[in-house]
Each structure stands twice: as C-alpha cells, then as structure tokens.
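R.M. (postdoc): so does anyone remember the format we settled on? I'll just put the structure tokens first.
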C-alpha cells in the first residue's frame, strides 16, 4: 500500500503543475512540534498537531506588512528603501505601481513575494479531513469539533483568495493521483459558486464549534461559533457589495468555455447578508459580547471623561483578548509593530533612536476622514472653520487633555471627535501613557524639525507625514531607554464592526430605517458622539443627508473607515465598495516635517502619488500559472 507521504508528494506535484503553486515541504510554515505526515494520524496527539498545521497559514496574517488590506488601504504610508528596521516593503510598494502580472506582489496564490500559498493550506485542510477517522483514541466530540474547525479554515482561506482574485478554483477535495492531466487542469468557478461554497462550509462548521473557549490558556484563538457566524456575515456582505454583485467592469470575464464568472446585480443578496449579520450579532451578544468600556486601574486616579473615552476607544483594540468584551476574533500571535506606531517622546528615546523605527505614517487625507466633535465630516460641519483649518492655534485649558497647553499646532487638530485623539499621534497631541499615568503630567508629541524629539533624525527613523497610528500602540507600552511593549492581538472582528456591517446591509435593503440608525448610533455613542439624526440636523450643511439611502450609505462607509481604521479592514471595505480608486486618486500628503516653525511645518507636502487603476481591484494571476494551466483565465485589464 502506498504510504500517505508518498501519495501526498505525488498529488502535490500534480497541483503544482495545474495551479502554478510550488510545493516544497507541506509543513514549512507550521508551528514547532508538528507531526510529520507519515505519523500525523497514528493517534490523537499527532492528529492534533496536524490540526494546528491547518491553522498555520491563518496565523501568518498577523504580519500586516503582508496583509493586502492593510498595505493598500491608503491609511498607512511606509517609507521605502530603508537600510535599518526594514519591513518587507513588497506590499507597501504596491501603491507605488510595482504590481505586474509577471511578478505579482503579495502573491497568496503561489506563495511568493511576501505571500503564503493558500492553496497549500487548503491541501493540508483536505488531508486532515481525509484522515480524521484514523486515530482510534480520538473521541467523537473532539472529532466533530476538529472537522468543524478545519471546514471553517477552508472557508476562510477560500474567502481570502476570493477577496484578492475574485473567481477562484474551489479546492473541495485534493486531486486524485489517478486523474488524467486534462481533468487536473482546474478552471475558475463563478463568483456566485465561490461564495456559495464558502457559506456552505461555514454552515456545516457552526453547529459543532464551541460556543465559547473554556480553556483560554490553552485554546484562545481557536474557532468558536460566534467567529464562524461573524465571518459568514462578512462573506455575505462582501458577496452583495458592488465589486462582486453586478459589477459591469467584469462582464467580459469568462472561462475559456464561455462561462461568465460574474452575474448581474441581485438585490436579494443584501437581505441574505442582513439576516446573517443579525444572526451573528444575536449569537455574539448571547455569549456576553458588548462594546468595550475602559475601567481605570487603581494607579490611575481622577481620570477626566475625555481621556476615559480616548482610552476606551484605544483599548478596544489593544486590550488583552480575555478582558475585551468586544473582541470576537483576533489572531493568536501578538501584534509585532507597536514600535512602528509610536513616536519618540523622551530624551532617552531620541538618543536611542535605533531601538524603535516610528515609521508607520498616516497621510493627511486619513486624518481629515475623522469627524469634528459635532459628529459630522470636517467639510460639512457648519461650525468648523474648514477654510482656515491649516492656520495655527495654541493649545488652551479647554483642550488640555487632547493638545498640550501653550503648544502651537494646527487649527484642524482642535474640536475633533474622540476617535481622532484615540487613533492618531500628532505634533502637539497628548499621548497618555508611555510610563506616565498622571493626568497632570502627560507626554505630548513634538515633531517639528530634526531638533524635536519625534522629528526626523535620519532616513531610517522618520515619520514622513507627521502622523502616527496611535491606535496600534498600547498605552502601557513604553518607549524610553529602548522599547518595552504591552502586547496585544490585532482584532479581525469586533462587535462595533459587526454593528456597522448590519446597518450597511439593512440600509441597502430598505434605506435609512430606525433600526439602521440604532446600530450606527450605538457605535457613535460609545465614541462620545450624538446620533446621526441629531448631529446632521443640528450641525451639517447637508442636514437631510441621513434621510436617503445614498446619504446614509456615505455615512455608514465613513463610520466604518473611522471606527476600524488601521485594523486591516478598510482596504477590504474600500475594494468591495469600489471606492478605493477615488481614495487613492488624491496625492499622499503630510506636513513639511523638516521645518521647525509651526507656520512653515503646517503646509501640506506631497509624499508620493499613488498608482491605482481599475485593474488593481483584483490581483493578477501570475502569467506563468496561465501557461501551466491552460484552463485558467487572467483577471480583467491585466
């Protein structure tokens, strides 16, 4: 009888030829202590090790430099060609026009250019399902759970590929070594079939997944029913969105047999998505999920409401998973890039600049996406001096918990919503924490010119816009004589995002109903803002905006961009909405960082002009893959 290892190697070779994927070692991205294929299913312990190899590719998503959503959202700019503290720049450079079909960046199809091979991960999942009955000491309850986990992983891996490439081959089973070559040349499935298969796997998985993780010390990060239902909601909202639902730009995309891969618009998809969102919310809330609120530890006294709100919003991302009532799903590896999001604020940190790069830069356009303190966009607020927003203003007593008193900064930094101050570090901005928890003695950022603490010291440790993604740094992390971080796990799904997803789907079904407003307003209330109706009626120069489906759609889209900024969510949203091209058509700008005087520093300066056209909404399939598998067709415009 052929050994499983030999069989898998033959199947692996076949898939390599047909999909264009390479296959060196199956477990080359698996965690330590993973069983080899030859012994993977001889008993329960070895089979559990193999289960963890099925999770292995999922855990690679913690590296946001390889995350297609994070690096191409326009939220973060990373300076290229750094000689110290270099991240892999492949993904960040995609906005600089480096993408080609001959050598795609972040190639999650083949596992090249800072991408993992998801097809390899799918093969591992299928191997697990094919052999799950082998261990005789595996209980029936454990078996059902493990099968459900692997089906979820198969669904999520297909979903990740679908968001990047659109119609994809479905890897329902591993190829049989006795199949003829022609039948091995798989073709792309229709978009409807892709989403239907993903949803079917999630439906099969959900009943056998645990409602909660009982042993958090050993199992936190494994899939629960709440996670599966929440991902199903995201899948169905994506399927209903403009990129995939009736997209006229893709009507010409067909298989070589003439099969159209995109179908006409179907409004019913939004109702199905809304139902899935509501089911996910119901399940999550039944398991105790609620919007997070910061509870100050004993060493923080007399915390003003304004700072408490800021810490609530910041810690909704950086709080420990087991203490965060809002966190539905996060990746188990801790977020490793806090040092890229933290400016220098002490004399020791300014001397020891190589311990922390501080190079994640937020463009000016993203800063201006946040609302004013009246809860409406800066360009719509009739009380906000938008025309003179770049003039200079000095911090005063009223704003002392947001902006350093007596420090000259730009007028646009004043009278903004709490999420602005929770999410961004900027010149003159208060940074509560970093080793100080006394509200009468807080750090603030000084970023003007190379003589300032946070300003440019050399080409490897500068922030090229003057804004840091503060939201990605735990307030307890300290950058002083070196960097000591308080670790956290970057969320994949939070309850606030699920609320906004439900509101979005409901609005597409029936327009701005009371229920739509309810779920948007829950998120706004936690952020210290009045409801949509009150805010727009009282303060917007477009007071009736929220009364139309189009107007409410714009509001919900902006709410999601603000609420979920820097969390590797907006890139997917902007793609599925078909809005990313508009966002990236504006030059990437920051402040004039080398100037010391405020009047000269606060002048918009173009960092680079992004390159993003219609073709970039979907990744190209590598040219060589099309040669190897003659049944594959290329994505439009490549």
């Amino acid at each position: 009888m052929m050994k499983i290892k030999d069989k898998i190697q033959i199947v692996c070779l076949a898939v390599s030829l047909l999909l264009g994927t390479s296959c060196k070692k199956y477990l080359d991205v698996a965690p330590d202590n993973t069983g080899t294929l030859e012994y993977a299913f001889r008993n329960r312990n070895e089979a559990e090790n193999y289960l963890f190899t099925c999770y292995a590719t999922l855990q690679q998503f913690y590296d946001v430099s390889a995350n297609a959503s994070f690096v191409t959202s326009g939220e973060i700019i990373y300076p290229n060609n750094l000689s110290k503290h270099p991240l892999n720049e492949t993904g960040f450079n995609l906005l600089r026009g480096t993408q080609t079909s001959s050598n795609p960046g972040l190639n999650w199809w083949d596992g090249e250019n800072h991408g993992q091979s998801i097809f390899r991960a799918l093969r591992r999942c299928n191997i697990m399902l094919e052999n799950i009955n082998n261990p005789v000491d595996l209980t029936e309850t454990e078996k059902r759970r493990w099968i459900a986990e692997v089906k979820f992983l198969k669904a999520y891996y297909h979903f990740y590929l679908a968001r990047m490439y659109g119609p994809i081959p479905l890897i329902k089973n591993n190829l049989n070594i006795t199949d003829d070559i022609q039948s091995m040349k798989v073709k792309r499935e229709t978009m409807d079939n892709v989403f239907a298969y993903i949803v079917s796997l999630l439906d099969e998985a959900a009943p056998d997944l645990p409602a909660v993780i009982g042993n958090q010390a050993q199992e936190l990060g494994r899939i629960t029913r709440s996670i599966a239902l929440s991902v199903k909601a995201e899948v169905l909202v994506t399927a209903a969105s403009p990129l995939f639902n009736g997209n006229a730009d893709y009507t010409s995309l067909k298989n070589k047999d003439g099969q159209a891969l995109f179908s006409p618009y179907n409004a019913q998809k939004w109702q199905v998505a809304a139902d899935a969102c509501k089911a996910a919310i119901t399940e999550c809330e039944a398991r105790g999920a609620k919007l997070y609120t910061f509870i100050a530890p004993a060493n923080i006294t007399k915390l003003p409401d304004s700072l408490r709100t800021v810490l609530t919003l910041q810690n909704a991302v950086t709080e420990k998973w087991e203490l965060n009532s809002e966190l539905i799903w996060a990746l188990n590896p801790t977020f490793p890039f806090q040092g890229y999001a933290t400016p220098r604020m002490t004399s020791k940190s300014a001397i020891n600049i190589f311990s922390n790069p501080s190079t994640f830069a937020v463009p000016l356009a993203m800063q201006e996406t946040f609302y004013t303190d009246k809860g409406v966009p800066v360009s719509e607020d009739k009380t906000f001096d938008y025309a003179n927003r770049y003039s200079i203003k000095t911090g005063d007593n009223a704003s002392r918990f947001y902006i350093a008193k007596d420090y000259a900064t730009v007028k646009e930094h004043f009278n903004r919503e709490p999420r602005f101050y929770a999410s961004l570090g900027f010149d003159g901005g208060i940074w509560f924490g970093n080793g100080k928890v006394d509200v009468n003695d807080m750090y603030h950022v000084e970023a003007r010119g190379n003589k300032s603490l946070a300003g440019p010291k050399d080409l490897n440790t500068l922030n090229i816009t003057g804004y840091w993604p503060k939201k990605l740094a735990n307030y307890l992390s300290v950058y002083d004589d070196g960097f000591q971080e308080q670790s956290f796990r970057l969320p994949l799904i939070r309850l606030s995002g699920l609320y906004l997803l439900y509101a979005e789907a409901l609005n597409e079904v029936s327009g701005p109903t009371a229920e739509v407003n309810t779920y948007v307003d829950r998120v706004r209330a936690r952020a210290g803002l009045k409801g949509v109706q009150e805010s727009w009626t009282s303060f917007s120069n477009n007071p009736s905006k929220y009364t139309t489906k189009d107007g409410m759609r714009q509001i919900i889209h902006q709410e999601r961009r603000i609420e979920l900024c820097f969390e590797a969510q907006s890139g997917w949203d902007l793609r599925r909405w078909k809005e990313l091209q508009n966002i990236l058509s504006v030059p990437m700008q920051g402040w004039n960082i080398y100037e010391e005087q405020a009047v000269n520093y606060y002048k918009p300066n173009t960092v680079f002009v992004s390159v993003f056209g219609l073709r970039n909404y979907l990744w190209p399939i590598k040219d060589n893959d099309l040669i190897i598998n003659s049944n594959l067709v290329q994505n439009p415009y490549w």
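R.M.: ...and that's the designed sequence above, right after the tokens. Also worth knowing: The CA atoms of residues 151 and 344 lie 45 Å apart. The radius of gyration is 25 Å.
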